[in-house]
Specification:
The protein has two domains: 2-140, Oxidized Rhodanese, domain 1 (3-Layer(aba) Sandwich), CATH 3.40.250; 144-259, Rhodanese-like domain (Oxidized Rhodanese, domain 1, 3-Layer(aba) Sandwich), CATH 3.40.250.10. 27% of the residues lie in helices and 14% in strands. The protein has helices spanning 27-34, 64-73, 92-102, 115-121, 149-156, 170-174, 208-217, 234-243, 255-259, and strands at residues 2-3, 14-17, 36-37, 41-42, 82-85, 108-111, 125-126, 163-166, 191-192, 199-200, 203-204, 224-227, 249-251. The strands form four sheets. It has a five-stranded parallel beta sheet. The protein has a four-stranded parallel beta sheet with strand order 9-8-12-13, with helices on one face. Strands 3-7 form a two-stranded antiparallel sheet.
């Protein structure tokens, strides 16, 4: 899940830079072009980690063929140790990490601290774009961590025993405020855990306080399906649940923006 930069062996790892800004889609690429961890490749949230031509939410799941091509051109092998980073405390590295987990790259990790901390710690930094040798890697897809819309529909009608956990702010969860999506509210039956609670001073917390807060919302023995607005900020909540000992966790990549995309979608408010 998460790993501190103090525990990373740079030379034994492959690096993925995922810095991005939802307000400025080119910011991450500009930062990468200026400087990055030596040898790191760049994955863009909207060009690589989403299929923006689809209508299943604001950041739809990429097709498996596209992901396979991404992994191969990135020079990845199934047994590689892969470290994914962003600016720290952001959801973008977690999104990339979840996709790696989904594809079976189990030796992949989210750098707890961001790029600035890595630079300060003395990690090698440059602005050269690497040209990794392509591989013929074949992902081993783990469908047990993925929740398609149909799976969530089964939860809502009581056909599947999984707890829906909404990673958005309490105001958006209750439908009091909706700055992005056209319809305010939540998926029926969902509980709430604002993903911002996972952070302190710009990085994700791994102490017992987060675990205790999660335990007060959902039992670790139950299966949990996390979602947010577009599937991005739910990724660090997924990672934190796994880090806290929750064994059965799924991510609804389409999330609320996909849920309300069909006519007469059932929602709750209040």
């Amino acid at each position: 899940m998460f790993v501190s930069i103090t525990d990373i062996d740079y030379a034994k790892s492959k690096w993925v830079d995922t810095r991005f800004s939802l307000q400025d889609g080119d910011e991450g690429r500009r930062k990468y072009a200026e400087s990055h961890v030596t040898g790191a490749i760049y994955w863009d949230l909207e060009r690589d980690l989403s299929n923006m031509t689809e209508s299943a939410g604001r950041h739809p799941m990429p097709e498996k063929t596209a992901l396979t091509k991404l992994f191969r051109t990135s020079g990845l092998k199934m047994d590689d140790q892969i470290i994914v980073y962003d600016d720290g405390g952001n959801p973008f590295a977690a999104r990339a990490w979840w996709l790696l987990q989904y594809a079976g790259f189990k030796n992949s990790f989210i750098a707890l601290e961001g790029f600035a901390a890595m630079k300060e710690a003395g990690f090698p930094i440059d602005n050269r774009v690497p040209e990794p040798l392509s591989t013929s890697v074949s992902p081993d897809w783990d469908e047990t961590i993925y929740a398609p819309r149909q799976f969530v529909e089964e939860i809502v009608v009581g056909g599947t025993a999984s707890i829906l956990l909404d990673a958005r702010s309490a105001e958006r969860y209750r439908g009091e405020k909706e700055p992005i999506d056209p319809i305010a509210g939540r998926i029926p039956g969902a509980l709430n855990f604002d993903w911002e609670q996972l952070k302190k001073e710009g990085i994700f917390k791994l102490d017992g306080i987060v675990k205790e807060r999660l335990y007060t919302v959902v039992n670790p023995a139950e299966e949990v399906t996390v979602y947010c607005g577009s599937g991005v900020t739910a990724a660090p909540l997924y990672a934190s649940l796994k880090h806290s000992g929750y064994e059965n966790v799924r991510l609804y990549v389409g999330s609320y923006s996909d849920w309300i995309s069909i006519e007469d979608a059932e929602i709750e408010i209040g």
